[in-house]
Amino acid sequence: MIDLYYIEDDQSIAQLVKEYLERRDCKVTIFHTLAQAKQALAAHVPTLVLLDWNMPDGRGDSLCQWIRRSFQDLPIIFLTVRNDSRDIVSGLQKGADDYVVKPFSLEVLYARIVALLRRTGSTAKPYLSCAGIMIDTGRRRVSSHGEEISLSAVEYQLLLYLMQYQGRTVTREQILAQVWDVHGNYVNDNTLTVTMKRLRDKLGQPACLQTVRSVGYRMEDTL
Predict the structure, then answer these.
(1) Are 36 and 14 in contact (CB under 8 A)?
(2) Which of 46, 208, 169 is nearest to 113 (CA)?
(3) Among 56, 58, 54, CA closest to 80
(4) pTM, 2 dp
(5) Each residue of 112-168: pLDDT tens digit?
(6) DSSP H or E stretch at residue 68
(7) Whole-angstrom distance between the N-terminal and C-terminal Cα of the chain?
(8) Contact 68/95 with Cβ under 8 angstroms?
(9) How far apart are CA 76 and CA 183, in angstroms?
(10) What is the mean pLDDT of residues 89-105?
């Protein structure tokens, strides 16, 4: 499923696009202000962003630049009435991957989304997120509510493994086998306990990183 954020202040257009794309196996979350979208992006990164230019609290190109600085590989498509060639060039120069002028065909929009994701590799996201904790797997960077966190190699691998199985309980034995033994390193059970404590301390004791007593751990958004 393609997970889309659509930033659009016109509710009728937003709903029309949402209903069509969700019939094509997309999940669409609508935001009517730039501030709402920015807050949501700090907690969760979608597969792709659809972005209007004229918004009640600013210009879409400013958010486009912020997204490109924060999420280098996140695909962005402008959907806007601004059809001047200078606007189109400006939008692309500021980080957008495509530019669609209103009014547009919903069928063509979906085709452009699919084509863009095909060019960027697949619908797989290079970002994993849970309750404000985010991993940029391409650059191996971790942040918590926008603040970059420095982790050791094994702390990073532990968090990555839990994120990849978000919403599922993983046993201590599974973690030891995948994070340590897969690299040929024998460790005892206490090594996981100590590493998990360090990871939690660095992330600020997040509620989403849960202990399942006598079993293992679970990463789950508590909101």
Answers:
(1) no
(2) 46
(3) 54
(4) 0.72
(5) 999 999 887 654 567 888 888 989 888 888 988 878 999 999 999 999 999 989 989
(6) helix 60-70
(7) 22
(8) yes
(9) 37
(10) 94
